[in-house]
Amino acid sequence: MPDIEEQPPLPAIYNHCLRAYETMRAQAGVRESEGKRMLVWEGFLTRLLGDELNLPTPYYTSVRTHLVRMECVRQLQRGGGNSPSQWELVKKPTPELFREKAPKRSQRDRELETLRGQVGDMQRRIGELEKMFPELVAFVNKLAPAKDNYESTTDHTHSGHVVVKQEV
Predict the structure, then answer these.
(1) 16 and 88 share a domain?
(2) Digit-coded pLDDT (tens) for 3-18
(3) Is 6 within the bounds of a domain?
(4) 168 falls in which pLDDT band (50, 70, 90)?
(5) Which tens digit of pLDDT belongs to each residue from 50-82?
């Protein structure tokens, strides 16, 4: 059986892109330009996303950027004011296109993610050590030849080291 690499789930923005494209397709008409037939949607993208798909305004830029990046749409005419924009519908968004055309994470982002993981690991390890602290103190006290001559205290400096002092 071939190895199937499990893909992480797609972010919600993919579904927003798919819904936007499908709505545009349902409203589009066929146009001919320079002997080429194309499917063209004409309208106000902000209204389509906000009024028809009930997406908050901040999604406009993200949905538009993803659709253009995946080469699913191509702007033919920019709108503005009372003028609608015109978009050629090239191809339907797919999970493969979305993943393939997704912006690549920068080296800095990868390093930051690695550091966050390392900090999380250290926090877990420190937590485990802190849970063991009372047992360690008890063990050290058992090893002391004369318990009355020793006391265990915690150094309250930033180092947090355990110090076993011999009293004179």
Answers:
(1) yes
(2) 556 777 888 999 999 9
(3) no
(4) very low
(5) 999 999 888 889 999 999 999 999 999 898 888
pTM of the model: 0.58
Q: Which SS3 state, helix, strand or coil, does residue 73 take?
A: strand
Could you give the 3-state DSSP secondary structure of residue 133? helix
Query: Angle at Cα 22 formed by Cα 20 and Cα 26, nearest 5°?
Result: 115
Total domains in the chain come to: 2
Tokens of 98: 């979305």
Q: Which of 57, 86, 101 is the last residue of a domain?
A: 101
Say which residues have a Cβ less than 8 Å from residue 23's Cβ, sequence separation at least 6.
48, 52, 53
pLDDT at 157 over 70: no
Within this chain, do residues 31 and 89 fall inside the same structural domain, yes or no? Answer: yes
Query: Are residues 53 and 68 in contact, defined by beta-carbon separation less than 8 angstroms?
Result: no
Residues 21 and 94 in one domain: yes
Please report whether residue 28 resides in a domain: yes
Domain limits at 119? 107-166
